[in-house]
Amino acid sequence: MSEEDKGTEELIFEAAQTVFVQKGFDGTRMEEIARVAGINKSLLHYYYRTKEKLFNAIFKKAFSYFMPKVLSTISSDLSFDEKIKIFTATYVEVLLKNPHIPIFILNELNRNPDNAAQMIGELTGIAQNDTFGKFSALIQEEIDKGNIRSIEPEQLIVNLIGLCIFPFAARPIVQGIVFKNDKKRYNEFLEKRKTEIANFVLQSIKIEK
Amino acid sequence: MSEEDKGTEELIFEAAQTVFVQKGFDGTRMEEIARVAGINKSLLHYYYRTKEKLFNAIFKKAFSYFMPKVLSTISSDLSFDEKIKIFTATYVEVLLKNPHIPIFILNELNRNPDNAAQMIGELTGIAQNDTFGKFSALIQEEIDKGNIRSIEPEQLIVNLIGLCIFPFAARPIVQGIVFKNDKKRYNEFLEKRKTEIANFVLQSIKIEK
DNA sequence: AAAAAATTTAACCAAATGGTTAAAAAATAG
DNA sequence: CTATTTTTTAACCATTTGGTTAAATTTTTT
After folding, report:
1. Number of Cβ pairs closer than 8 Å across A and B?
2. How does pLDDT run across A91-135, given as a tens digit for each residue?
3. What distance lies between CA B36 and its chain's CA centroid?
4. Nucleotides on strand D with an atom closer than 7 A to protein CB?
5. CB contacts, 8 Å: A26 with chain B
6. I want to staple B88 with a disulfide (CB 3.0 to 4.6 A). Which of A29, A107, B197, B201 is the partner?
7. Which CATH number is correct for A3-49, 3.30.190.20, 1.10.150.120, 1.10.540.10, 1.10.10.60?
């Protein structure tokens, strides 16, 4: 394989990403991927033998955006407050750059949990490191130290992640119904979320006020 | 049409709901709906002429679970705190009974926003009443009265709804990764959410502490 | 320039799918 | 009982789709 092969392979990969992420596995047609990539179906199969193989490659990459290394912020030596602030801000920033990822991942995870689990298992990080376990422990420490009020660590973790992901996964609802299709206000709303989420969460759990 | 017609029509409707909600529009096969309903394809088309018509009927009903009348709690004469508590508790209860609805709605909304918007428009309530506008006004009043801290009403509304919906839409993640497939702990977690969400939110926005 | 690899073209295939049709059988209504 | 409606059966159809094949052309490597 030459260097330019990566050019074509990458071209196909990006086209596949565009189509799969927008339309899901069932809604995606191989021909459309080829069309978007500006090549033909034969070449598509020449690089990725089956739809499944291509999809799985896309899924893995998409998942790395969905559960980004941002979670490693937890293992840094920042203060708890800073960790929350940086985690949420960075997470929202990542999602602002990949706004279609959440609904894609959530849907495919739901559609074919077994295959998805397999793909996630093949990724390094996330599942292996037990990042959430560490996060739980960190929260429990803060509670024990009296820095935050008592709360089940899992509830707090799901709140944090949910507050970041939800406005993206539910964009048509939030933009359409809450903001009556005013895209500008919806985008300003998302921008503010970068700091708003940490604010909201910390106000809820901090003890001194 | 006789009375028993409704029996068969309802049978088909329920089978369609089961399949569509689990597999989405693209992933659903008409034959599977017929199989689940215990009838044959011909009879299916005899009642609902096309896949689209059947789907749209299902979508409308599902959406009424996704955005339930619970939102009318807002217009009641309860105290603000009570409104939040009852809204979140009832919403989580509704979703516990229809756990697959969120991801179904979010995905179909994303897949075909125009058709979804049309269907939502044909429903009474929700879109017409500007429930969210009223909710915003209510929140702003509470801020002006000094009962809760300053916050953009839309941020608070999205937080509330997101905290309710997210654990259902992201079940495979929450159950699989956070709770390592311990279904029992995941279900206990959801049960606690009925009160936990209001707790979390009120702690964040209440002024006296 | 020769060999190897990449790309295109186009025809082709089998399976799946949404939908139709028509005739027979069963159930229901008048 | 007769007429109507509902339901089944089964064959059928056109289209779509993922995938293959083979030959020709272009590009890259050596």
Report:
1. 141
2. 999 999 999 999 999 999 999 999 999 999 888 766 667 888 999
3. 24
4. 5-11, 16-22, 27-29
5. 23-24, 26-27
6. B197
7. 1.10.10.60
